Amino acid sequence: MPSITVTMNVTLDGVVQSPGRPDEDTRGGFTYGGWGQGYWDEVMAREMGVGMSTPGGMLLGRRTWQDFRTVWGKATDDNPFSTHMNAATKYVVSRTLKDVDAWQNSVLLHGDAVATVAELKAQSDQNLSIIGSASLVRTLHAAGLIDQYTLLIHPLALGSGSLLFEDPAPRAGFELTRSVATTTGVIIARYIRR
């Protein structure tokens, strides 16, 4: 059976909200958007490139798909991330979207997230990755559907914002399979579920 891997930027205190831009996600009055900027280096580029070079589809929640579509869906450069995002099959988990025709290779998974993703995972012959989509990750984690986490742990604490695990999450053990520190102090850690 294929695996589901999550890649997530996270602060030392567990915040995952809006690492990319100040306007990315301001829900709850969050004012620290863009906190992940300034940490990119060659080590991070290489490590993220490994994930992007692995074949498979992507799972995205509605908000992340809409945001990524705006950023990556219009990219015309030869950046390997743009190439990967546009070429990958993007499975969009949403109860509210009517269609996902606005970004090529997008497939709508309408209905209950756990049921639709479990069915996709059981029937698919390819691994699936999730970048961001914290709400979807929490739901799938609680259902035991996440197999691996790649956490980019940033050396800062914000004291507020949406956390990786906000609701009581089921107990789960993980094994560290790889870790590397960037020149900017980010620890990239890969864990597989035991």
Automatic annotation (TrEMBL):
GO MF term (any one): 5-amino-6-(5-phosphoribosylamino)uracil reductase activity
Naturally occurring in which organism (per UniProt): Amycolatopsis taiwanensis
GO biological process, one term: riboflavin biosynthetic process
Domain Bacterial bifunctional deaminase-reductase C-terminal: start-end pairs: 2-187
Pfam family of the protein (one): RibD_C
Protein name: Deaminase
Superkingdom assignment: Bacteria
